[in-house]
Amino acid sequence: MNRKGEHRELLEDARRQGFVRLRVDGVLRESEGLEALDKRRKHMLEAVVDRLVLKPGLEGRLTGSVETALRVGGSSLIAVTEGTGGEERIYSEKLACSPCGLSFPELTPQGFSFNSPQGMCHDCNGLGSRVEIDPELVVPDPRSASTRAL
Question: Is the dihedral of CA 143, 146, 147, 148 positive or negative?
């Protein structure tokens, strides 16, 4: 969310849901000491779902954290990896790329079939060849065509 306001209700709701840490305007903050924000400025609030050191045996916890993050984040989440200098990666269930605005329709078997309008090539209409007119074959000698017109 990137809106102006104190966001008291949102902060209280995050505490009630058990989120101990929040990222407010890109800075990690403890949710307990955070009562209100500057109402004259726009704020970006993000819930920190979990902090993990990846090692064997954490698959269940990682899966639960990803599911929670997708639920809270409206089908998208941001993963920050500290080993690569704090690189952020955005993941989405919406088949869309938030930064560039590119989105794709839901994948279906028809999308992989040339016999279906959803899967056919738009250039050849699924036929494998294009019907084109070669101007040089229609008028083999353009000089002779122009002299006949006079």
Answer: positive
Q: What is the DSSP string of 72-122?
A: HTTSEEEEEEGGGTSEEEEEESSSB-TTT--B-PPP-GGGG-TTSTTTS-T
Residue 150: pLDDT band with limits 50, 70, 90? very low
Asked if the structure places residue 129 within a domain, the reply is: yes
Which range marks the domain in which residue 146 is found?
A: 105-150
pLDDT tens, 9-59?
888 888 888 888 888 888 888 878 777 787 888 888 888 888 888 889 999
Q: How many domains does the chain have?
A: 1
Asked whether residue 65 is domain-assigned, the answer is: no
Q: Is residue 133 part of a domain?
A: yes
Amino acid 92 reads S
